[in-house]
Amino acid sequence: MALEKILEVYLTRGETSDVIVKLKEMNVCLESFFNRVQQIKAYHNSKVYFQDIHKAGGSAAFDSEGNLKNDFQGPQVKMIYTYFDTDGKEQTAFILI
After folding, report:
1. Do 88 and 80 meet the contact criterion of CB atoms below 8 Å apart?
2. Separation between Cα atoms, residue 34 and residue 73, nearest integer Å
3. pTM above 0.85, yes or no
4. Which of 33, 35, 43, 70 is most buried by a 10 A CB count?
């Protein structure tokens, strides 16, 4: 099965309510999600802005580098976010859920 067929992408572009609704639909524990958000905010010392939610399907999952792999056990959700570094430049990163 082609990897393109086992990935759903939701574009949220920072709308917090859209992020929460999609995570609920995916049965993601919101308490764990918000704890993780607090950790990354503290790590980057910046607000974070969510961009996209990637959901693996079938027997696919994301590896630790965020790559989608078929027949793989791992996180099913990857969220892309942006933050501002200490120089004020916008950076992009992701979290796996």
Report:
1. no
2. 23
3. no
4. 33
- 30 touches 24 (CB < 8 A): yes
Nearest to 8 by CA among 21, 29, 22, 18: 22
The 3-state DSSP composition of the chain as helix, strand, coil percent (nearest 5) reads 30, 35, 35
pLDDT tier at 67, thresholds 50, 70, 90? very high
The two tokens of residue 77 are 């959700």
**Cα–Cα distance for residue pair 43/66, rounded to 1 Å:** 19
d(CA 62, CA 77): 7
Phi/psi for 31 (5° steps) reads: -60, -45
